Amino acid sequence: MAAPAAPARNRLLQHEYGRAPGYAAVNLSKPILTIGKTGPQWFRAKVSDDEKRMGKKAMSAVPQHNSLRKRGLFAGLLRRFIVDARGVTAIEFAVLALPFSLMLFVILESCISFAGSQVLANAADDIARRMRTGQEKTMDKEKLQNLVCAEIKIIVANDCPGLYVDLRTFTTFSGATTVKKYMLSDDLDNNDFRVELGGPQTINMLRLYYKWPIFTDNIIGLLQNGKEGKTVHFAAVIWRNEPFNN
């Protein structure tokens, strides 16, 4: 195949390589290259005789051209990805859905658990007042559990399955402080729980416990203070009975 005329050959070289940054400067005023249909690879083979005169930097035009094309393609795709706003709402929702749901369930669980604790505390105050004034002069375990369960049934399961009661009498208020802690090895220790109510002007202490279930599995570790994935609610009242008649 005959080589193109010098002006046409120069214009072809300028079109293929002259516009790309980073290429070696090539004097296009003289017809030193022959371009055929095979493209840049054929161009490299044909100029191998002139490589000593022009230096290897000039012959690196083809690899640089391919590398720059790939780099420009990647930069273009990255630029399009950054400026493209389609699907932004879906992506933001997917990123925020999990932490938002976790926070929402923690708030709900905490509020419901706090409400249950307050209901238990109110029940302890009400039952203690009835015993202090002599409205309830005798008490056993079953009767006490039924009284407490009737007070808290609005927020707990039927028959109050997690309820524990402890009622005892003392000769002094300081004696009530010697009662051992109710938690042992992260669980409720009810081995010595009893129900005994004193007479007029005696000192009594009522303790109520309820193993409150945690419904959201993913936050059990954040809220539980006992075993079995539950938190133990506690209410206590100490009083002296009034001088009522037996």
Listing every helix as H and every strand as E from the N terminus to the C terminus, the arrangement reads HHHHHHHEHEEEHE
**Which strand order spans the largest sheet, edge to edge or round the barrel?**
1-4-5
Ends apart, CA distance between termini: 129 Å
Sketch the major β-sheet. Answer: 3 strands, antiparallel
Describe the protein in words.
The structure is a single chain. Helix 6 crosses helix 7 (141-152). Residues 9-47 and 57-64 have low confidence and may be disordered. The protein has two domains: 6-83, no CATH class; 112-240, no CATH class. It is of the alpha+beta class. The longest helix is centred in the middle third of the chain and has 45 residues, at 88-132. It has helices at residues 6-18, 40-46, 51-54, 56-59, 61-83, 88-132, 141-152, 173-176, 220-223; strands at 163-170, 183-184, 187-188, 203-213, 230-240. A hairpin with a 2-residue loop joins strand 2 (183-184) and strand 3 (187-188). It is rod-shaped. The protein is built from nine helices and five strands, in the order αααααααβαβββαβ. It has a three-stranded antiparallel sheet with strand order 1-4-5. Strands 2-3 form a two-stranded antiparallel sheet.
